[in-house]
Amino acid sequence: MFLDGLAFWVFMLYIYVIYLFQLCTDPKRRPPYFTDKSMESATKYINRKFPNVDIRGGSQHLSNIQKQKSAILEGLHSYYESFIDVMEFRDHVYELLNTIDASQCYFNIGVNFDFTKNYLDLIVTYASVIYMLSRMDDKKAIVGMYNCAYEFSNGNSDPSFPRLGQMFIEYDHPWKKLSEEFGPHTKSVTEALLSLLMVYPRRNLSADQWRNAQLLSLLASPAAMLSPACCDTMACEYLSLEAMERWILIGFLLCHSSLNTNANSQNLWKMALRNGLYITVIRDEVLNIHKLSEDFFDSLKGYSKRIPDIKECKELNVHLSHGFSSGAVRREKRNFLRNALKELIKVLEDEPALLGPKALFVFMALSFSRDEVLWLVRHAENIPKTKTPEDYADSQMAELFYYMEKLRTLLAQHRYVIQRYHLQYLSQYDALVLNDIIQGMYVCPEEESVLMSSFVSTLSAMSLKHLDAGEEFDLKPFRLDWLRLQAYTSVGKAPLALKDYPELAKVMNMAQFHTRMMDNVNELLCETADLSILCFHTRVFEKLFSQSSEDVSMQRYLTAFPVICSHFSQCLHPLCPEEAEDIENRSLKMSVNFLEEISRQTCMVVLEICAEQCNLHEKLLPKHSAETISTARNKKLKKSLPKKGDVPKEKPGTESLRKDRVIVTNLDKMHQALTELCASYSICADFTVFQHIIVPAEFLFSQLEIRLNKVIVQMANYNQSTHEIARPSDLLAGIQAYVTSLHSLSCYTNIDVTRLVKSVLLQQTQPLDSYGAQTITTLYTNWFLEGLLRQASSALIVHCPTKQCFVNQNTENEQSFHAEEYSDICGLRSLAELIGPFGLKFLNENLMWHIISQVGELKKLVSDNMDVLVQMRANYDNPEAMSDLQKKLTGSENVLKRMTIVGVILSFRSMIQDALEEVNSMDRHCPFLMRPIKCLKDFIYSDGDIKVTLSVYEMASAAGLPCEIDPALVSAIANMQTDNSSIEEEFKITCLLLVFIAVSLPTLCLDPNSFYSREHGGHQNNIHCLATAVNHLAAAMFTVQRKNIQTQLHEFLKVASSILLQLGQNVERVEIKNRDSVYLLLHMIVEQSPFLSQDMLEMCFPYVLLRNSYREIPVDSSETRGK
């Protein structure tokens, strides 16, 4: 009992010593007193004088310690107490080992397994603690500095300091001192180690021997498939090979005299030496056992013969012997285990009930696999000089990890099956056999009899009713009693000697395993499948992942790496919480890095497939049909055939034709890679790392979201310097091809592609995506403003109302793009579908910014001509006065040009608004929502409450409905109002602006491009957009100023009509050249205005002039150019 209870405390102390060692070796976490230059003199003095540090004689060196004595006592207290714990631990170990020797205890791993295992663990752990303590460079300085501070504070030395200092001095050469201490215990240690002769050689077989014995195979003997897996040494079958090697090598290092006197000891020692170059002390601390043994025996007399043995074993490890080195042997073992575990999993998945009788096979498989993993890990970080370094790397380790995780999952899934089987086995077999053995014993002392009777009664009392009722079993008292019985019956003069009753030991060891299947499977998994040590071998772990990810056949197992990170919490100890945060951060970081890399590879393959499908889809676009049609037509007309040297163009679909299925295309390879990568996500839907739930599929979702955003932006092909960009219709077709291909991803793995696509496309409707990068909304907004509309404002591109698009002018300088391809109905519908209402809102905001900047300049022009415009407004029907005032007016052309720019922008905005209405199709999708909106819009009055009116118009505009008053323009103009100007002043400026526009209209006749084109339905210099500008701008400005829109526009109509009618009186002047085209502009203003009517126009302007103007406009625009 003392051994078992001591184990927990010993392990805690061991963990804490390691933690202190890491603190002292890490420059960032060392106690600050050893990095402070002011303490450097004191530290050197203490190390030089230790342990006899005289605070009076060294006062000049220790003055800083005296100044900071309180801080030093507080800061180093935990270190000092830990060293005292180590000293007390040593005392307890001395006492326990002496008691064991005095009791002449019997050790045999096959009989009293727990007793022997705990004894060997205690010896190795004690030696490891002392070894790690000796490697701590700052231990003398810490203890000495603490004692000096203590003496300065209390006037005398700490009571524990002399013994602590003496212990540090003694263990300057730890192995020599330890071997001296263990000299009296050689008999007990050797007896325990030699009992491994019946286990270690059998466990240390080659892969060929495993294969010949059909190890771990349930199919090897089908007739015995249902027979329970049991043997004389149940616990030894899954005992860690690494632990046995550590016992043997460190045990014989401490009790080396038996190597010269016992041939069996020497054979066992050599066998362990031939099995590897390094053994694990703890975590990532390893011992080069050959070098250590050679140096140690070289310092001892009478051990010269052992040195050649060590060198021989080292050579066998590194270099090929009979075709194999230890690295090659281990590589073959891993290959065997991969196939063996795969077969075992397939059988158990098909017949999970076999987990009952064959549970031992599962734990053996896990233990064997863990041994091979740990061997590779500790040697991969310390690769020796060898001709075969590939033996210390494994690109297929992911598969072994996967099978280990799969076995753990099977045990968890079918826990009830395992419990049900073993409950019946315990109550109906183990209890009966144990009772028969007890009955047949000749000698049975009372205390031992009570214990064994309790065993039988405990097992017999178990029934399926308890299991079916959901009761939790706790059989730990049973196992503790068995350990107590082992201790009672293993002493030299015990009345009942366990070694005389091997059958009792066999049955009890078997029953103990069966009880662990009832309530202790998780702890058994920690013993056999715990890979938490990988947390401390970060470089090796990451290297194994990298090697596995490069092998296509291993990609389906890659998720096993991040899942293993969920085991890292098992390396924590509840009594050392200081390291929990560091290990948690390390575990999460590794897990996230692995998943991000898997997701990155998967995402890369997915998008390559999508790109390939997009290219194939692009070949089917209508724009590529012209060449095919032309070829067919030429063939029909029997025109000249292509020359022999010309390679015929492949038709779409040719890539799917193949003569042999063996021929593998690039797309086939990508689909295979995708299948492998997506299969890795099926290992588990989620797992927990330190209370953090991690969902692997979400990492793929995140990566796809990031990369798909980048791909869509790249597909736009925006070039800021040349103002080139992909057509919206082409981009939409490409995105649709990507989306169609992405939906096939759900056939490979469980991922919500619809949510992914919605998330990405929604981000593209915003100016910036969730990662702060530009989206297609920003790109197309910039292009339409800087590319198309800027050229339209210079009349290089013309707004064409008949075609509802913009078209290029026939100029000498050819444009870099065809405006109609971007602004036709198809192009704008595609744009509206790409960037949606949110994107169009952003585009509208930028359009409004440009309009407002033009309005600001127009107001400045009005202010400059204020007096003249006031007089013109009063005398518009006096030709003579108007003629004189016209000469005083400046900036007429500038006003018309800026108004034309505003009109072009508003015309474009109207086009995209119509496209949005058609794309949204809200009448079809949600008529119940659209009908109330339309009803409100139709019945609202613009001269009512302006806030209510604008709210309704804003809602209608968002739904894509045209409105009499543009709410966005109203809002923009309202925001540009300054605090200094009153509403009346703004109203006056607006009225004068309309007068300015009206009196400037005759100057349009001077521009040769002011002629009206029937083909385009507008003027060649875009002045027809003035109609849109006047109507929208006037409505918005007068709405802000709370004035009657119709009244003011009627005034504008009177002034414009009067001015234009005066053109007819000047027959010989040059202004009459395009007079008819300008007359039509007046008709357009009235026709487009919801506030003006034809009756109002006829009151001011004769309709006969409009009719004649339409008649005078030539059908072919080339005639006009000729004139």
Automatic annotation (TrEMBL):
Protein's recorded name: NCK associated protein 1 like
Membrane-spanning intervals of the chain: 6-24
Keywords: Membrane, Transmembrane, Transmembrane helix
A Gene Ontology biological process term: cell projection assembly
UniProt superkingdom: Eukaryota
GO cellular-component term (any): SCAR complex
